[in-house]
Amino acid sequence: MPQRLKVLISAYACEPGKGSEPEVGWQWCLQMARFHDITVLTRSNNREAIEAAVAAMPLDPAPPTFIYFDGGEFELWWKATYKLHRLYYIWWQRAVRRIIHDLCKDKQFDLLHHVTFAGYRYITGIWGHSVPSIWGPIGGMESIDRRLLPYTHVRELAIELFRNLNNFIQSNPTATFPARSKQSSMTIVSTRETQKCLNEWQLPSVLMPTIGLTMEDFPERARYDVTDKRPLRLLFVGQLIWLKGVDLAVSALSQSGTDATLQFIGSGPFRASLEKQAKKLGLGERVSFSPRIPRSQVMQELYNYDVFLFPSLHDSGGFAVLEAMVSGLPVICLDLGGPAISVVDDCGFRVAAASRNKVISEIADKIRYYDQNRDAVEAHGKNARSQVTKNYNWKHKGEEMNELYHRVCSAANLPQRANMTKTT
Fold first, then answer.
1. Are 9 and 32 in contact (CB under 8 A)?
2. What is the pLDDT of residues 306-325, one digit of tens each?
3. CA neighbor of 89 nearest in space, from 66, 131, 121
4. How far is residue 424's CA from residue 421's CA, in Å, rounded to a whole number?
5. Engineering a disulfide at 232: which of 159, 171, 236, 260 sits with its beta carbon 3.0 to 4.6 angstroms away?
6. DSSP assignment string, 115-152
7. What is the mean pLDDT of residues 369-388?
8. CA-CA distance, 419 to 50, in Å (whole number)?
């Protein structure tokens, strides 16, 4: 029987039913509790939702044990007042390092695992405790091609230039990123761009997307006849912000030469700009907008569309893409970040980063292809669901991570304990 390890998971963001990073933290903790004795260190802010969910869980296998920590009134005040969330995260990681030190002495963990936040840029409290450690899956080395930078948007340009500069600095072998990877027994990365950086330094890593889905929540449903000759329906779901490439989507629709329609579901500061862009391009009612709606409603809406359009310029994950794929929609995305790993051949199209005009032209070409080949919409949609079922099912991902846990601990020559327990 495989050995049940004693594992501490650091998951700053960890909350059921919230999506994004909190869902990532929550799911990794649940999955690993299937195989091991899991203790989770997370924020006190997550406690109410976690305890309600744990109370409804079966006792076999044993759910994770949660330890909660947050700052005092002063730290929480400046975090909320000045919206210094990232600075608070750094403070939190420094503060929990002492907690982890004490827990390691008390519980004698076999393994420490940092899960969230899933970005390489920040410190984590798991290092320096003389215990094997796993960092990740982490991402963040996705830089925007200079030809696609937002030169007409000063604020966004400044943000992306700073991000690109930071990534350039971290591509130096003497930077903090490689140093942090060296402190970890294993580094798991969620994007090819992040792995490429480590490869250049001859530092080993494992490529594994950080996101997944619980397939039981997405039963296969019959779709309408996509070959019906009506305008192709395109859908975007997400924040209406520049880095999501929303302006590229509108321009591509105009260039496609089709009568396809594009629905945006989401809120953000770029909505007014998109409305003006659509009007200027003469798209009229072919581009429509819906404010952010609950995830359950989005899941229902997905079945009313043909193709998911997601030209994001840097997304290490991309939950919206997975949810569209599992609902049977092919995806048009850029060949960047997490979506580039999810959207494999024959379940959508990946458009290479190039000049703005070239990217828009390529996206327009893919829209035109699906408009003229409705059978491909159906076939690629079925392949998209199969891709998610095979590679993004949380249960399967848990099994993969379990193998990595044992690989790390075997390499560390951990002594075998007597408490061997059946896994589920």
1. yes
2. 999 999 998 888 899 999 99
3. 121
4. 10
5. 260
6. EES-BTTS--TTSSSSS-EEEEEEB---PPPGGGS-TT
7. 95
8. 28
Q: In what order do the strands lie in the sheet with 307-310?
A: 287-290, 261-265, 233-237, 307-310, 331-334, 348-351
Angle, vertex CA 297, rays to CA 294 and CA 299, nearest 5: 115
Among 140, 138, 193, 110, CA closest to 24:
138
Question: Token pair of 330, please?
Answer: 């092919």
pLDDT score of 71: 93
Q: Look up residue 271 and give its two tokens.
A: 């909505």
Q: What are phi and psi of 207, to 5 degrees?
A: -90, 120
Residue 203: helix, strand or coil by DSSP? coil
Q: Which residue has the tokens 């939950």?
A: 319
DSSP characters over 245-298: THHHHHHHHHHT-S--EEEEE---TTHHHHHHHHHHTT-GGGEEEE----HHHH
Give the pLDDT band (50/70/90) at residue 416.
Answer: very low
Which tokens in the block code for residue 112? 């420490």
C-alpha gyration radius of the chain = 22
Q: What is the pLDDT of residue 317?
A: 81
Q: What angle do CA 72, 74, 75 make, to 5 degrees?
A: 70
Long-range contact set of residues 345-348: C-beta below 8 Å, sequence gap at least 24: 346/379, 346/380, 346/383, 347/380, 347/381, 347/383, 347/384, 347/386, 347/387, 348/308, 348/380, 348/384
Token couple for 416: 């075998």
pLDDT, one tens digit per residue, over 232-275 is 999 999 999 999 999 999 999 999 999 999 999 999 999 999 99
Rounded CA separation 216/105 (Å)? 39
pLDDT digits (tens, 9 = 90+) for 20-71: 899 999 999 999 999 999 999 999 999 999 999 999 988 778 899 999 999 9
- Encoded tokens for 418: 């007597």
